[in-house]
Amino acid sequence: MSDVLVVPAEHGDLTDYAKRRKYERGDAELWFHLAETSPNGAWVAKDGPTAIGVAIAHALEDEWFLCDLYVEPGFRGQGIGRRLLDEVAKDAGDITRSGLLDARETGALRFFVRRGVSIHTPVLECAGSIPREEELARMAAGEYRFTTTMLDPARHRLALIALDREVRGSGRPLDHEYLAARAHGVAFFLQDEFVGYAYVWPNGRVGPLASSSPAYLVQFFGFSLAALARVHGAAWCTMLLPGPNIRILRVALAVGLAIESVRLFASDGALPDLNRYVGFHPVLF
């Protein structure tokens, strides 16, 4: 019988846990934001005074996303993950459940499968040096003549919700408020019609990025990398590319980016159209 307690996380629990996992500054800020806004709060499993497991969930418009579910290896196999998930998912209701899983974490994969959550889309973390300016200009030029403006979550709210429902599977207006306050967000228009958006970050991260058509993706990608260099002075980039997004994947590998890890998107809902999407972060895909 386990003496491990599963309890609501206090700030000190989260601070200690984040330190042990050695998050970078931007990652830690996002993780704490998600912990603080989780519908049922963050939960921890404690062995005495020490947190040995954590669970954090996030509510999108039509989706419940598992940001983090982790149990220290020495405590696995005791049902602690199930207890954490039961608490963090309580009262989630009849909506899609999803998560982005590390392909090496076979325990987490087994955990999702046992609960009827399909594992169906590989997501590749790609990273590398930003290509030379002339290469970026060639990608961004393309055949379409887009106009751009700074993304405004309030002014573009309806267009963002509609596109996110198509591409990501759920609207996420509150996420855009968080993202736009911290990243350089751009809205793309073609003949005055909203056709996509992209965010770039000071740490070199690209995403989320979404497009109303696969045909626009390479230009959006080139524009995003150029914006990284111009706005943030970045020389390095990283992004989460769904396997179906073959247009950006082919270009990314052709310009020298490398596949650094593979994650798997799991969901018990309808399959989103991820061939028009670039993810943001493993804890807020």
Task: Describe the protein.
This protein is α+β, with helices and mostly antiparallel strands. It folds into 2 domains: 5-94, Gcn5-related N-acetyltransferase (GNAT) (Aminopeptidase); 124-278, Aminopeptidase, CATH 3.40.630. It has 9 helices and 13 strands. The chain has helices at residues 11-21, 25-37, 80-88, 106-114, 133-141, 157-167, 173-180, 217-232, 246-254; strands at residues 5-8, 43-47, 50-59, 63-71, 96-102, 118-129, 147-150, 184-190, 193-200, 206-211, 236-242, 258-267, 277-278. An 8-stranded mixed beta sheet has the order 1-2-3-4-5-12-6-11, sandwiched between helices. The protein has a 5-stranded antiparallel beta sheet with strand order 7-8-9-10-13, sandwiched between helices. β4 (63-71), α3 and β5 (96-102) form a beta-alpha-beta unit. α5 (133-141) packs antiparallel against α8 (217-232).
CATH class placement of the largest domain: Alpha Beta
**How many domains comprise the coordinates?**
2
Instruction: Summarize the helix and strand pattern as letters.
Output: EHHEEEHEHEHEHHEEEHEHEE
- From the 3D coordinates, which CATH architecture of the largest domain would you assign? 3-Layer(aba) Sandwich
Q: Biggest β-sheet: count, sense, barrel?
A: 8 strands, mixed
Low-confidence stretches: none
Number of DSSP E strands: 13
Which tags fit this structure?
single chain; 285 residues; alpha+beta; Aminopeptidase; five-stranded antiparallel beta sheet; 9 helices; 13 strands; 33% helix; 32% strand
